[in-house]
Amino acid sequence: MPNILKYILLFSFSFQLQAQETLTLESAIKIALENNYEIKIATNNLKIDETNNNLANAGLLPSINATLTNNNSQLNTSQTQADGSVRTLNNAKNFNLNYGIGLDWTIFDGLRMFVKKEQLEVLEQQGKTELQASILSKISDVYLTYYDLVQQQQVMASIDSAIVISNQRLTTARNRFTIGKASKLEVLNAQVDLNTDKSLLLKQKEIYKTTKIKLNELLARELQTDFKVIQDILIEENLNYEELKEMALQQNPQLQTQILSKKLVDLNLKNVKGNRYPTVRLTSGYNFSRSEASLGFITQSSGQGFVYGVSASIPVFNGFLQNKNEKVAKYEVENATFLLDQQKVTLESQIASLFASYETNLELVKVEEQNTEIAKQNLDITLAKFRIGTITTIEFRTAQQNFIEASVRYSNAQYQTKLSEINLKELAGTLSLN
Q1: Does domain 4-35+111-278+318-428 have CATH number 1.20.1600.10?
Q2: Which of 110, 210, 344, 406 could bond to 372 as cystine, CB 3.0-4.6 Å?
Q3: Do 282 and 107 meet the contact criterion of CB atoms below 8 Å apart?
Q4: What is the pLDDT of residues 216-234, one digit of tens each?
Q5: Predicted pLDDT of residue 318
Q6: Cα–Cα nearest to 376, from 418, 417, 410
Q7: May I ask which residue range the UniProt record assigns to the signal sequence (predicted)?
Q8: In this predicted structure, which of 10-19, 67-76, 301-310 has the lowest mean pLDDT?
């Protein structure tokens, strides 16, 4: 009898799951990376940023346009000459045609075009960081939901084993009642306790099923896809606080996004200051023109050839808006600095709190593991005594409930420790994707 509980977990619950697909954590992550909608959206946003990061959007390249103008008129025309004579012509036709190709190039604008190119590069970097943050967030959700299922599976196995024992207790009570060694009350109590265990298992199965639906939703696949997960929660017990904090300051996605936001407002200040400098534009092109008139000194003319020129403008006075705009840009830089410092403090606080929980939960896992083993030994002894009738049903039920509760607490302690580990790695940007 001492080994019965050792094998109940291995066979009774596993037998119910053997026909289901085993979904490994690596497979779940792979499916999420391929299917998750938020990751797809973040990926497309990055592609947009990459596409926008070019010389043309920064204003570094010239614009070339082809033009065509064709004007026609048919008028009743009257002209008075210098000698006083008058010339008239009805339905006088006039024709004017211009076409050509022209170049317009801003060759200097106070270096704002170079600032714009830097801004586009920072936006692309920000897109990469936001994609990384989205991936880490979704992968963290997959981790947490997956291990939640592992924990629930362990809890169901514990309840399932309790039901096996409750069935044995009911059988024993009936046998004892048949031979007159127990009352009907003992049989009824055993039946009530068995039904209580079955009810508890049904409720736990409902939670398990809804959590599986949640994981399928994260994986963006058919919500009713059936599967099972692994049996054990593997905990990394050697996380180092200083290493986690250093890694977080270097590669935490939210902090990196804030750093890039600070760069953008710094560049915006440069862009505003660039308005103080002149703007120089170069124009060039090749044009062809032709005109015809039915009445006048010149009835036909045409021309073709290159045209070119340079224009320059410099701001002299705009109602002191330049100074005001620069002042506003400086305040934005100051605010971005405050936000960056705040993000660093918040990040360090989160890591410190999570690491404290991680250390506490590691100790709880050890305590609850010992507790579960003790509760198991106590139940083995109690079950043996119950079989020979040297212990009351209340004492037996207490030992059984103690074992279930100890098993649940042990599973929960493992899950809470894993939760702290996953959250710490997410903050540090080191959460493995496979």
Answers
A1: yes
A2: 406
A3: yes
A4: 999 999 999 999 999 899 9
A5: 86
A6: 410
A7: 1-19
A8: 10-19
Tell me if 269 sits within 8 A of 329, measured CB to CB. yes
pTM of the entire predicted model: 0.81
Concatenated DSSP letters for 371-393?
Answer: HHHHHHHHHHHHHHHHHHT-S-H
Q: What is the DSSP string of 5-48?
A: HHHHIIIIIHHHHTTS-B--HHHHHHHHHHH-HHHHHHHHHHHH
Calculate ∠ Cα 285-286-291, nearest 5°: 125
**In 3-state terms, what secondary structure has residue 125?**
helix
Two tokens, residue 1: 């009898």
Mean pLDDT of the chain: 89
Give the integer Cα–Cα distance in Å for 296 and 43: 67
Percent of the chain with pLDDT over 90: 68
* Distance linking the first and last C-alpha atoms of the chain: 42
Please identify which residue in the block is written with the tokens 């940023």: 49
d(CA 402, CA 407): 8
Q: How far apart are CA 323 and CA 273, in angstroms?
A: 9
What torsion, rounded to 10 degrees, do the Cα atoms 108, 112, 114, 120 define?
-140
Burial 312-331 (b: 16+ CB within 10 A, else e): eeeeeeeeeeeeebeeebee
Range 180-191 burial, b when 16+ CB lie within 10 A, else e: eebeeebbebbe
Q: What is the domain partition of the chain in residue ranges?
A: 4-35+111-278+318-428
6 burial class (0-12, 13-18, 19+ CB within 10 angstroms)?
Answer: exposed
Residue with tokens 């085993």: 22
Q: Is the C-alpha dihedral spanning 377, 383, 384, 389 positive or negative?
A: positive
- Report d(CA 377, CA 3) in Å as an integer: 10
Pick the closest to residue 172 from 189, 157, 195 (CA basis). Answer: 189
Q: Rounded to whole angstroms, how far apart are CA atoms 61 and 185?
A: 94
The token pair that represents 312 in the structure block = 């320059």
Residue with tokens 């009936």: 174
Give the model's confidence band at 19: pLDDT under 50 very low, under 70 low, under 90 confident, else very high.
Answer: low
